Amino acid sequence: QVQLVESGGGLVQPGGSTKLSCAVSGINFVLEMMAWYRQVPGKEREFVASITGNLASVYSGSVKGRFTISRDNVGGMVYLQMNNLKPEDTAVYYCHAESYASIWGQGTQVTVSS
């Protein structure tokens, strides 16, 4: 059974930083491309970043240079380091195993506000 459990986030001031974590189980993690998405109410889920098992990463234009995706292939963890946060980064953040299209975790809320 595939499980994705996100944690971290919370309330952060503009310009601040936070780090999200995602614990992954039930898949062959090393072979899986992992990604972070985010969603705000009334809008579609938006791609943020992805990382392959051999650590090649891709970022959306809106977060490139501010966010860093990483992974621990031994521990089955995916991370998203978020720096220089902006109010428009406010969203629920989800990690995702790209081969399992319909499986999502509960997400974690990030609110950027003073």
Describe the structure.
The chain has 114 residues and is mainly beta. The protein is 0% helix and 48% strand. The protein contains no helices and ten strands. The strands form two sheets. Strands 2-10-9-4-5-6 form a six-stranded mixed β-sheet, with no helix packed on it. It is globular and about 40 Å long.
Helix content: under 10%
Report the oligomer: single chain
Average pLDDT across residues? 96
Q: Poorly predicted ranges (pLDDT <50, ≥5 residues)? A: none
Q: Tell me the structural class.
A: mainly beta
Query: Biggest sheet: strands side by side, in what order?
Result: 2-10-9-4-5-6
Write the layout of secondary structure elements.
Elements: E1 3-7, E2 10-12, E3 18-25, E4 34-39, E5 46-51, E6 57-59, E7 67-72, E8 77-82, E9 91-97, E10 108-112
Q: Which structural traits does this protein have?
A:
114 residues; mainly beta; six-stranded mixed β-sheet; 0% helix; 48% strand; four-stranded antiparallel β-sheet
